[in-house]
Write a structure and sequence with these properties.
- The chain contains eight helices and 14 strands.
- It is an alpha/beta fold.
- The protein has one domain: Rossmann fold, CATH 3.40.50.1820.
- The strands form three sheets. The protein has an eight-stranded mixed beta sheet with strand order 1-2-4-3-5-6-7-8. A three-stranded antiparallel beta sheet has the order 9-12-13, with no helix packed on it. Strands 10-11-14 form a three-stranded antiparallel beta sheet, with no helix packed on it.
- A hairpin with a 2-residue loop joins β12 and β13.
- It is globular, with a radius of gyration of 18 Å.
Amino acid sequence: MIVDELKYDSSVDGTHPLFADVAFREDGKLKPLVAVMHGYNGSSKDVSQEIRDLAKLGLVCVAPDMRGQGKSAGRWDGGGLDVHDIVDALLDAIRQFPSEINTSNINIIGYSGGGGNVLAAVTRFPDLFHVGASFFGVSDYALFFENKGSVYANEIMQKVLGGTPSEIPEVYLARNACLAACNNKVTKIHLFCDDEETACPPILNKKFLEAQHAAGCKPATMHASRPGDKVRWLHGYRTDHPMLAQADEIIAADIHAEVPDLSLPHTGMMNVCGYVVTRHFQVFVEDGQHGRVKIHYEFEDGRPQVRVLENPKDYEVHISLQSPLARLKSKTA
């Protein structure tokens, strides 16, 4: 098995160096690519067992240190540009190991705050991921804060983000994957949690599912455990709770299944919470850290036309028809 380290830069603001661990069996065969995300205020070392176990199932696994965490430079921003860094890590892995990675099969798994990264990633990069698996993830950082499941996490959020949801609502608005659930109608999403979870309670998953339903999306698959079950999806990593490893077969089966057409519909609307990056265009609200706008897009002769529909706070919106995902472009439906 190859276990290596990636060193790369942010394609958004140039933060460098950023680091990620990568694990795979080198066999010259194209394999699915999977980001494996550590939890809130953690590092890639927390998921070192996860990436090795998943690599044995025929996957190329990349575990980034989020900016300001582990070995990575910069300032951690709790669900902001650090989510874009995940995709930069995946693109760097593709550059470095082109003979080992199937670029049409890209996936993401995460734990706790990393589960929140999963939900943010699939809604901000709506035509990129085949499968996303969120373990006790954070779908809405304001709701997470207000729930007070973790005083420690709340203290970190206030420090990292600069205040509480009532003090800086626009910052938390950019970190609400429930509002952006309508963006992604194709990724196969798994939600794992336990009924007795307190730190990241089941209400966070419930709200995401409700938002998907309201938007007419294919709903995520909920895996909820409860007292008395043989397998419990308890908060932590498999080094803490070995039962979590039993999710591998569920997730890997979907990852190895045929990849559907991930293309955006010919026309549609999106809620841009902070930013959205597709294979054809990208939209940033301010610096990607504040606020929400609604956009409409339509493809004409293969080229996207993008306009802002709602911008109640008069945010500065940056629309570009250039995308870091352009070379992964798939046929538009």
